[in-house]
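Changelog-adjacent note: as of this version, every example in the card shows the full chain rather than a window. The one below runs 249 residues end to end.
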Amino acid sequence: MILRRLSQSLKEQNWAAIVIEFILLVSGVFLGIQVANWNDSRKESMQAAVYLKNIAEDIRGDINEIDETIAVSRWRMSVLQALIVKSTGEPLPTTYILPIGVVEVQAVPAYTDAENKSLGLAYAYIRTIDGNRSTYETIINTGGIGLIQNAKLLEQIQIYYADVDEIKDIERKLQIDCDSALLALHEAGASPMDARKLTELSKIIAENPKLLASSKTVWGSTGHQIRILLDLRQQANALLVEIEKRNHP
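Full-length structure tokens:
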């Protein structure tokens, strides 16, 4: 309609009408573009909100997994601590001096199970975290990472998943240490499935230097695992707070 009126005004050389019709035409095009841009921006914001909601769900799942892993690792460290002290008659160190400074050994509750249930499983029963990356990988693979426009939040998300990968590498080392200790246990003529009391199993450890050394290694590695998982849990909680701020302004 506007183009028809503009054409008619040109034929009639009605310059005032031409200017008005031209302004209306440009304004209409501009408004159309703005509405389209607004719709695209709204869709992107909604998609970003969905991504963040799903990431939050993944992280809540990670926290549950972290808590379960820490519980198992504290049990393992507690059992090994009791066995090592019983077999050597000496306390384990409470700190280590590293190039970065003094590092405290992760404290765990003393082993108190009077029935000594499945002590040997401390060498075989290990839990590690997987870290649910499904939403994060989807965002990366589809190019949706740019939809998260809050730079601080995006950085937190990227750091979190990078730290999860680093912890998984550390836990693979722990698995190797546990496998070596389990082999030493077998070489000492014992199995994690044996129903051995604390006194009996600690005697076997005392008589086998390799088993004692590997037990100490797993004890220390487990303490390191617990410490970094506690840090990751705190990091996950902080990230959830930021996501909730973004989705619920």
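Structural remarks: The mean pLDDT is 83.
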